[in-house]
Amino acid sequence: IKLPKMKPITANIHREIVGKVKSITLSLSKTGKFYASILVDDGTEAPALVHTVNTVTGIDLGLTHFAIESNGKKTANPKFVIRAEKNLRRKQRQLSRKKKGSANRAKARLIVAKCHEKTANARADFQHKLSRTLVDENQAVIVETLKS
């Protein structure tokens, strides 16, 4: 990727860029990784909205199960979260034992940040896959809101 006032950046491009690039937003994660979000105008019109509702489902988010649909289908809590939290606890304990300002503490901080990033990415992936299946199977999805 070539940006103004910067030297060219090597990038892992996941999709071919088709159309005119409108803007590029760069972001830096806590682990030192750069991410580029590219807005492209491909010239196609947005598809017309479909207003017919054939199937409707309601979702209740719970503690024992991640989600329970109105038809009785239960989605279990993801197992990776428990493992990731245990791993994170261990890494944070190791970080707390390091002397402040040392190079080993900086390395340990980076390890904890990577652990947080990996857990967040796994959670986001799980939620995206679940929401995608719900949207594909139903025309309308109703979610509860809790007032606190």
Automatic annotation (TrEMBL):
Residue span, Probable transposase IS891/IS1136/IS1341 domain: 50-147
InterPro entries referenced in this protein's UniProt entry, alphabetically: Transposase
The protein's name: Transposase
